[in-house]
Amino acid sequence: MPELPEVETTRKGIQPKVDQQTISKVIVRNGHLRWPVDSDLAEKLTGLSVLKVGRRGKYLLLETQNGTLLIHLGMSGNLRVLPVNTTVQKHDHIDIEFSNGYLLRLNDPRRFGSVLWHSAGEGPVEQHKLLAKLAPEPLSDDFNGQYFFEKTRKRKVAIKTLVMNSQVAVGAGNIYANESLFMSNIHPQTIASKLTKKQCELLVSNIKKVLEAAIEQGGTTLKDFLSPDGKPGYFVQKLNVYDQAGKPCPVCDTPIERIILNQRASYFCPKCQKK
């Protein structure tokens, strides 16, 4: 699943081609995504200009004078910038064409992505039901050790599960949760409320570091993700524990172990991350 670094890579990739551009045409080939695409989406968007290309958590936000288009890449989606009239491929579900001769094309094999319209008349897009309860942006000053320490109090869940809770820490999905816990020497099954304030500060610092490093590398490509120019993300070459079961820990050479936690694969070093 594309996580925050992949979505930020996508935002940066599409911005130069669509920012301040007018939407000239919208083609919906398959609107049966996670949520049905509005049947009148083309009517709503055609003629509008993209005033800003933003992001909130894992959602891309195309802001216009009449409202905001929310795009989520789901499990397998990618958003490409292509010349208008580029040949359509399998799983190319939606095209948004612009007056400058380029288009945004959503390709989503598993169709867990979403394209949703939020009208300006409904209030600020931050009030949208999918955004309203999201935690502070992880690279912002609001996401800090004190904030996270307070969120862990009285929480009897595994720390990895809490890190992946978007109402506590947004955008740090499975890959980056595993990596940041390893960097912090915290076992993924550690009960959240048992963490000290110092451990929370270290974990927050490492979440920020791993996300920043991944963004710098263009995200992580394990299977489906491609940036808007068609390139894979290269952070996969820097993974310490994720998908490294049986391989030596980069710190102590102990074999990395794999467990299933909350239905997701978790990877850790049993020596560096004692339970």
Key attributes of the depicted protein:
275 residues; 10 strands; 6 helices; Helicase, Ruva Protein, domain 3; four-stranded antiparallel beta sheet; alpha+beta; N-terminal domain of MutM-like DNA repair proteins; 2 domains; 23% helix
How do the helices and strands line up, and which of them pair or pack?
Blueprint: H1 4-18, E1 23-28, H2 41-45, E2 52-56, E3 59-63, E4 67-72, E5 78-83, E6 92-98, E7 102-107, E8 114-119, H3 145-152, H4 159-163, H5 174-183, H6 197-216, E9 257-261, E10 264-268
Antiparallel strand pairs: 1-6, 2-3, 3-4, 4-8, 5-7, 6-7, 9-10
Helix pairs in contact: 1-6, 3-6, 5-6
Please tell me about this protein's structure.
With 275 residues, the protein is of the alpha+beta class. The radius of gyration is 20 Å and the shape is elongated. The chain is built from six helices and ten strands; from the N terminus they run αβαβββββββααααββ. The chain has helices at residues 4-18, 41-45, 145-152, 159-163, 174-183, 197-216; strands at 23-28, 52-56, 59-63, 67-72, 78-83, 92-98, 102-107, 114-119, 257-261, 264-268. The protein has two domains: 4-127, MutM-like, N-terminal (N-terminal domain of MutM-like DNA repair proteins), CATH 3.20.190; 145-268, Helicase, Ruva Protein, domain 3 (Orthogonal Bundle). A four-stranded antiparallel sheet has the order 1-6-7-5. Residues 221-225 have low confidence and may be disordered. Strand 9 and strand 10 (264-268) form a beta hairpin.
